[in-house]
Each structure stands twice: as C-alpha cells, then as structure tokens.
Amino acid sequence: MLPYNELFIDSGINTGWAFFDKSKKYPVTGLITINRQYRKTIENYIKFMGSSFRTLLRNFEPIRVTIEHPEFWNNSQKSKVAVESGSLLHNAANAYSYAAICYDNGVNFTLKYPREWKGQLDKEATEYRVKLILGKTFNNEHINDAVAMGLSRDKNIWQLRNIK
User: How confident is the model at residue 159, as a pLDDT?
Assistant: First the structure.
C-alpha cells in the first residue's frame, strides 16, 4: 500500500519533494530552489531553504517526513564533484536542518540513505521504474527521486509485483 499523508524529501541545492495523499492518483510535487546569488553564504542558504520547508510542513501537515540522507558514492564522478565543490556539505546541512525543523514541529521524520530505498538503481533506472509504476515521470531528477522514495515504501509496488 502506498504511503499517504507523508512527505518525501530529496534534499540538495535544489530540494525535490513529493507529498502522497490517499485521495490523489499522483503525489503533489515541487521543488525548493534558491537563486544563485543567495547561495553565496551557507547561512542565507539554510535560512531560505528552512523557511521554505516550514511552509511545506504548514501547508500539508504530514504525519511523517522521510528525508534522503546524503552519502558519498566512491565510483561516482558526480559524488566526487559534489565533495570538491562543497555541495555535498550543503546537501547534508539541508537534510539535517529539515530534520531539526521536523523535530521542532513535532513531526515524525526518518533520514534514509539512497541505498536504503533504491538499492543499486541509478538515476535513469529510478526514473524508468517511476514511469512503469505511475505511467509518467516528473520534470526534475530531485522531484523524481522524492516520488520514487515514496513509491519504494510499498515493496510490492517498488519491486514491480503489484503494478496495474
């Protein structure tokens, strides 16, 4: 059974989110993004992203939030660039800030490593699996991953055993 009244977060420089509501066929999705000039300091970045995240919590009132915990992948050039550029640290700062905001607002939350919810699937395979399950994909890789994280909560659906 798919989750409902749950919010899934793929944190990052651009944070994708997906809210699963039992009454809708597709999750409500969006992106928290910040203009490059405001990203010049981590303090501004965290303030803006945190404020936007609080608005999400107020608007949807989820019973649970699952936040993707950033991790380094040894064989990934993208991971290496993320470490060198500092974006992996920004990603971690966001994830932990979102978790703290959940805690402060009494919302249950979980931090999940990508390998915990998608295993060894790369971005393309994850996107393809979302398309097989829902019949569509989403216009941003972070949104797509947030949707996929929600879909993966039902192991039968995620493993393509119970798709219609």
Answer: 86
Q: What is the pLDDT of residue 127?
A: 95
Contact yes or no for 98/20 (Cβ under 8 A)? no
Instruction: Give residue limits of the domains in the chain.
Output: 6-158
Question: Which amino acid, residue 12?
Answer: G
Task: Please tell me the number of Cα atoms within 13 Å of 6 on its side-chain side.
Answer: 21
CA neighbor of 66 nearest in space, from 30, 99, 89, 91 = 99
Token pair of 7 as six digits: 């919010």
Long-range contacts of 134-138 (CB under 8 A, 24+ apart): 134/26, 136/26, 138/16, 138/29
Phi, psi of 93 (to 5 degrees): -60, -45
User: CATH fold of 6-158, please?
Assistant: Nucleotidyltransferase; domain 5 (3.30.420)
Q: Which of 148, 4, 144, 147 is nearest to 62 (CA)?
A: 4
Q: How confident is the model at residue 80 (pLDDT cuts 50, 70, 90)?
A: very low
- Asked if residue 127 lies in contact with residue 137, where contact means CB atoms within 8 angstroms, the answer is yes
Q: Is the pLDDT of residue 94 over 90?
A: no
